[in-house]
Structure to design on (200 residues):
């Protein structure tokens, strides 16, 4: 479920002090019910990537990403020199001492994101290419019913006019094909993992 921006901006996340020059694009509730200490499980799930059964099977999602990677290859958007540590400096260089010395969190296997930091209730990972420097922020929040769940925010810093045009062009596709399929897959895998833990 898409949430208002205030669901992210009103919380005392550490990301606010690190990424104040990034734009908040989207905030989504994740179907990942759990207890107060379950963020680490969700982070591990992101790091492992989708399972065989919970993977994103929506045709629109797969087509959109195939087109995106093809365009990126043709137009040179994803060259290593344009990513984090190349065109853009890593957010880890901005971290205050307590976060820099704390857990960084795992890198993702299936997506081009690198972890920045992880705390008890939030995790941030970054990516960069010729169009944007992006952050995926995962928070762990009360669900209003006595439990907790994940919350995903996407923050971006577009790279000039190219980045602005790119973000505007992909916006309808994100809402129609990418996010719905991604969030359903996250929920399916969370349920699978919970069932496997219960059976063990």
């Amino acid at each position: 479920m898409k949430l208002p921006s205030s669901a992210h901006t009103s919380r005392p996340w550490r990301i606010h002090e690190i990424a104040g020059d990034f734009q908040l694009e989207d905030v989504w509730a994740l179907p990942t019910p759990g207890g107060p200490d379950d963020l680490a499980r969700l982070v591990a799930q992101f790091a492992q990537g989708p399972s065989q059964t919970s993977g994103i099977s929506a045709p629109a999602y797969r087509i959109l990403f195939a087109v995106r990677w093809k365009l990126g290859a043709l137009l040179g958007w994803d060259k290593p020199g344009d990513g984090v540590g190349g065109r853009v400096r890593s957010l880890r260089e901005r971290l205050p001492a307590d976060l820099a010395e704390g857990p960084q969190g795992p890198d993702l296997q299936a997506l081009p994101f690198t972890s920045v930091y992880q705390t008890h209730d939030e995790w941030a990972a970054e990516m960069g290419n010729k169009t944007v420097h992006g952050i995926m922020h995962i928070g762990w929040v009360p669900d209003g019913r006595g439990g907790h769940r994940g919350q995903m925010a996407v923050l971006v810093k577009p790279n000039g006019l190219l980045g602005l045009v790119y973000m505007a062009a992909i916006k309808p596709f994100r809402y129609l094909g990418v996010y719905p399929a991604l969030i359903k897959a996250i929920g399916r895998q969370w349920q699978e993992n919970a069932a496997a833990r219960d059976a063990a």
Notes: The CA atoms of residues 112 and 134 lie 11 Å apart. Strands lie at 23-29, 114-118, 122-128, 132-142, 148-158. Helices lie at 6-9, 15-18, 39-48, 59-75, 97-101, 160-199. The radius of gyration is 17 Å.
